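1st attempt posting a full record on here, be nice pls
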Amino acid sequence: MQGTKNLTSGHIQRQLFNLAIPIMGTSFIQMAYSLTDMAWVGRLGSESVAAIGSVGILTWMTNSISLLNKVGSEVSVGQSIGAQNASDARNFASHNLTIALLISLFWGLILIVFAEPILQIYKLDPEITSKAVNYLRIVGTAFPFIFLSASFTGIYNASGQSKVPFIISGIGLLMNMLLDPLFIFGFGWGTEGAALATWLSQATVLGLFIYRLKKRREVLGGFKFFTKLESRFVKRILVLGLPAAILNTLFSIINLFMARTASQYGGHIGLMTLTAGGQLEAIAWNTSQGFSTALSAFVAQNYAAGKNDRVLGAYYTALKMTVLFGTFCTLLFVFWGSELFSLIVPDPEAYQSGGIFLRIDGYSMIFMMLEITTQGLFYGTGRTVPPAIISISFNSLRIPLALILASTGLGIAGVWWAISISSIAKGIVSASWFAILKKRILTTRVTGDSNGTSN
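the predicted structure (as tokens):
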């Protein structure tokens, strides 16, 4: 099939690494947008970091919603390629892009119009809230860029060409790194300058995706970007992508309330610690997510082709690497958390608080790796519901657990323990669920039609 790589034969570890490394790089680049903004804005003070961080949770929510079509593209297009059905692969690609555009316009309008009442949930000082509102209204107009780029990334990943999104995202990050200091300090635009730098960078990323696919027709021999929606394709995309979008969106909503709890017990330092610490935690998260996404694309093709021995081999290979990295992150966070945090926010009060967060969170790193890697296996086989149930259940427990632990004398540290304990539980349950379903997964096969049902 033109513009795709066949992942159903060849060396498993080599193919998995060739897929995973660019995906991890792309994930780190996405994370680096926020880290770059925070690193520069951190020089303006912890109040400005709190303003960016409060919007960062909403941006996270936006990226979570965009997973509907990123995961939808990776699995639906990937399984169609594995089943050698080029027509369905093109139709799924077009439908994912069309749905992504419609959702992004609706979601962006909501956040732009209701920016102020939404951000008041943090109960921050009026000056900080005002900065956050202006930042959100600027980046909100870039949401179509984010959604469509996520869909294009999913299409490329499904086709085995994960290097292309990595290169394009890298160009966007480089642009953001150059524009941040210019806009924030050179032009004196402060937090609004950071928002404008992000806007221009995201627009450039989308423009490069459009250029490559329209001019070069390098994936699936070319396909329409937007199309009239057909129920059979829409239904399959929703079945595959909606659970992932829901679990990640609810996760970000839960984090919104966790941020409010952190603000209640720790003021703007507590909020800043959660949001900036979350960016550092994303170092581990994005590494495991890179292998998980690569595993999903690899499994989608091989599962549709009935190569279940390759499915298992890829899962165990990915798991070994992510657990090894999780061990490294545990050591880094537990023993050098304060030093790591000070690279983002040099304020002593801030990095001391951040060190406590990273130490407590560090104990859960291996289990987080276990959860996310297993999630990739489930996604590749089209079973997106189990990860959603696990994530929604244990993430929801964070709020009451945080309130209980914080009120029993632990204070703000109780919020951090609630996050760590729930992550440990998710990893254990994910591995157990796969062990229970393993035989059933490996004795069924996707049919390869546009409905994508499993027998």
